[in-house]
Amino acid sequence: MTTSAMLILDILMVLSLLSLAAAALATSDARRSVILFMAFGLVLALAWARLQAPDVALAEAAIGAGLSGALLLAAVGDQPRRALTGDTKPVHHHDHSNLKLMLEWTVTLLCIAVAGALAWALAQAFERAPQATLAQAVSENLATSGVSNPVTAVLLNFRAYDTLLELAVLLTAVLGIFALGPARPGYRTAGPVFGGLVRWLVPVLILAAAYLLWVGAHAPGGAFQAGATLAAAGVVLRLAGQRTVGLPQGPTLHLVIAAGVGTFLLVGLSLLVLGRPFLGYPPAWAGGLILLIETAAMLAIAATLVLAFLGGRPQPPRVNVTGGKPPAASISTLRPRSREGLSGADVPGAESHKHFSEENRQC
Amino acid sequence: MSDTLIWLFALPLTGAVATLLLPRQATALANVTAVATTAVAATLLHAVSRQGTLSYEIGGWSAGLGIALRADGLSTLLLMMTALVVLASSVYASAYFSKAAERARFWPLWLLLWTALNALLLSGDLFNLYVTLELLGLSAVALASLGGKLAAVQAALRYLLVGLLGSMMFLAGVSLVYAGYGTLDLSTLAHTVEAGPLAWTALALMTAGLLLKTALFPLHFWLPPAHASAPAPVSAVLSALVVKAAFYLVLRLWLDVFADLLTPAAARLLGVMGAAAILWGSWRALRTERLKLLAAYSTVAQLGYLFLFFPILLAMPPGPARDAALGGLVILALTHGFAKAGLFLAIGIIQQRCGHDRICELDGTAQRLPATTFAIALGGVALIGLPPSGAFLGKWQLIGGAFATGQWLWVLVIIAGSLLAAAYIFRVLGHAFGNRAYPQSTVTVAREEWPALVLTGTAVIGLGLAGAPVWQLLGSNA
Amino acid sequence: MLTAHWLYGITGCLVVALGLRTALLHALLLHRLIGINVMGAGVFLMLIAVAYRGPGVAPDPVPHALVLTGIVVAVSATALALALARRLTAEQDDE
Amino acid sequence: MIEVMSSLLIVSGLGFYLAGSIGLLRLPDLYSRLHALTKADNLGLGLLTAGLGLYTQDLLIALKLVLIWLAVLAASAASAHLIAQHARRRETQS
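YS: structure for the whole thing
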């Protein structure tokens, strides 16, 4: 393609990125905002593919746009109007419109200043164009890293410690979510059309996840993209009315969500005990160890993302899950959650009411 | 020896996984982890005091390509404080949570928080620091929301959003640094950064993000509700350690990495914000109705003192005077950490035994809970900065530095802050020692009361009388 | 002289500012959260633009890895925030 | 020759996309918009994949492209159905 054609494409892409971001942030309707944000994420993924970052583009499309979008949409669905207004504003808003206007202008000017400073700094960075970047060091050491995809080499070998802590972040998030209450009630069972799609889409997604995991060693892909794809299968199953989406219950579930951190630590510390540096894989073993860690990480990532979408620990399936009226007794326990704080987080049946009100919310 | 750096974050992380998988044994496992990690921290302290800075290249990759961990005097001291505070709070927490389900939720997050703190203090890589900041923020928020009540959840949500905003700003700065210098390693950067729009913007963004996380006035709005509505052991660690981790990073960036491009005006700005924090935080602490809020506002004020050191340190030429002032800063931070943690634990006991923490209804507490009241008094001594507490030494250095550099205006702020602190502490003690006879008899609950006493005792006596090693340790690898 | 580099880099700066403005000003939680996510996306865009070396030249893989980590961290934080918001609604309903 | 054919296919595919997008913006109600979007875009994507597959002259890549097309086809059909069903249910309720 000629450079000028590419330039036109770039300009179009940049303009649509900016307008989508602005539109997503300007609209006051939450659902619209989320959908525009997802569109923004998809165009961003395109931009990254164009900038020769296919690994990141895959992850953005699957996680940044896809799963974040699913999480946000589920949250929008939970909370008709008031909920999302939760008082989180740091600045006391007086009804003084003058004051508010001044605040708005101050912040806007501040943000313009931030954009200007960032651009100025970036300009200097591009001018400096550091000679000895890490790219060189990465390609020099790629041969001993155990994989040939440089991004995977950085993620799971050179900077594996970052990834270990990142898996700890995921674990923290899911434990935090668990502590806040049980999962949302499920959706109704899918009809024939959607059900038919799910029946073959889920196996295909699982297959795709396995492929992405395997191929990550030498081509775009890896544990995160694979985990997100696997999580997508879980989300689809959930939308089709599967309550637990195949996740195990109880202690086994803990084993799955801790698998990433646990395996990583086990490998790292075993090497340390054997006299090598922490996470210093012997070159001959590196490929295998990375694949082992990535497999565990993929499971943990997928489970975490699905659990985040469910909104908590999945409840064991009950009779009369998928339709009809809630049992009369539970009308008296209208609260979605007990007030006991921590202790009451796992009350089954307390959700029936919400379940009923959400019956008709499938899309 | 440098393996200790690995075990310092690997032990609590392993503990977190273990407590998650074996919820029945969680309390025992967590306490074993706490003792072991503290022992490792002590080993490290010993090693650093003898050999100077230790470092570890993870995976055997040289720093730059890989990530290096580093422990110098400053980070080792903070690691040791972290270990002792978390250990004491763990002992306390073992008795604090009565239900098995509560304990099962608490321990893994608690140990993840510790992992984050240790990883942050050890990290020598900018992007890795971003990840540790996020781990710290998320685990702190999850713990703060464990109360489960409306106020706690609301405060935790605000805490999370503020923290996220802060880390995003930090990340923007990190990205600029990589764009311009092609490395993320702190010690390499210290040699390569040069004044210019790139370094200024990067430093400004990172500092702004960290100030938000360390709750420097006027960015402190999120702190009092979050710290006041969390469970007591969590409040202790949030106030004593979590905000200080962000402060440590500001110190590290300003004094080590970007030292060449600082201007007195920037340092003065931090000083002014610190002074405002002292006055505003102390004033609010004096006016508040609840003991926990008092302690939280007092944290806002105490952080102000730490930032007062910036204009003074920057006005001093490198040399023994400056090292002495830096030692004063560190000892003030350590004292506040121990004292505030002990104070929150003591308040937790009062809250559990009396069912409330309203200051004006504390009459008779001294008769009922003498040991706890004594812990509060000890913590108060450290917060005011009376001798022999470590805070006295710190403030002494601060005042000395202010006079030496001709910035006597700060001295007025310090005196006003100390007077206000005395007022709010004596207000509490006045109520606690109120002589209204109380029907109940004296309560002593050793397992709950000891940690608070030991922590506040360390702040007053340990750091005050045995503060000299702090200066030695900081000087040994300056 | 690489135009793409500049074009996407400056866009990243603007996206950061847009997100920051919403995160600071908006009253609704969901919008603030989206604002923070957009801000993050802008930072990631800057990083990927920095990594780009022009057609035919292999890009720097390190920023790519950093962004991958960043994306996962961002989604974890978003998930926790949404769970807190859900609990908040439930508690408010109880009041 | 092959290049011309593939270009022709791609351009005609884009034409369908354009029509679909205009339909999405201009048509009056949800059902007709869905109709425009799914039908025109699916056909457009089909032509596009055919053109690209021809362009690469690599059987494996062409096969992958066809797979993508099939997946999009199924997904868009199912989601269009779900959206329409949801809208219809809402209508009958109110």
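YS: worth flagging: Chain A touches chain B through 64 residues (CB under 8 Å).
IM: good catch. Also Residues 149-363 of chain A form one domain.
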